[in-house]
Amino acid sequence: MAKLSIEKITSHFRGELRGLILRLAFSRVAVAVTALLALLISFDWYMRFGKPGRCASLAIFLGVLALLIVREAIRPLRRRWKDDEILAYLDSLDPESSDVLVNVKEMRGREGIVEADEERGAAFLERALAALEARLGEMRLSVALVRAPVRRWQWAAGIFLCLALVAAVALPVPVKTGLARL
CB burial class (10 A; 0-12, 13-18, 19+) of residue 62? Predict the structure, then answer.
């Protein structure tokens, strides 16, 4: 494994988190949009909405779509994780880590470390920092983010989209008419 640095760890975490948020958001939006379209098309097919009813259906559809995009993608992506928050979170996942990540960051900064001003203290600090940095390679970043719920939503989205495709093939006239009237 390549030597990890604090900067690589935090940027890797941010990238993984961003990817998971986007995949989760896309999956949830796909499930909701597919279900809502099926519901609106069915209501229109059986109740024969007039023009105001179809406009209301379209407004509901677009409103729900916009709400979901904001709630599931934009708002979570706007949250900015500070390096200290990421390191504390990653340290909390491994009880045996003894706060390695936070300690390495603090020792590199040397702010507030009085011992670093003396020669012996600085040498001791360098040895301690080298020992902690050696443990960075043992960090398992793959367990930092739980991927199982995202995979479940991806499966659900795939199933919903396959069902929509089957419905479009099996019932082309109602689906085409419903989409055109929406």
Answer: exposed
State the pLDDT at residue 2: 43
Residue 150, both tokens: 């995202």
Size of the chain in residues: 182
Question: Can you list the pairs that 44-51 forms with residues at least 24 positions away whose Cβ atoms lie under 8 Å?
Answer: 44/178, 44/181, 44/182, 45/174, 45/177, 45/178, 49/181
What number of CA atoms fall less than 13 Å from residue 177's CA on the CB side?
11
Rounded CA separation 21/47 (Å) = 38
The model carries a pTM of 0.77
pLDDT at 92 exceeding the cut of 50: yes
For residue 139 the two structure tokens come to 């960090």
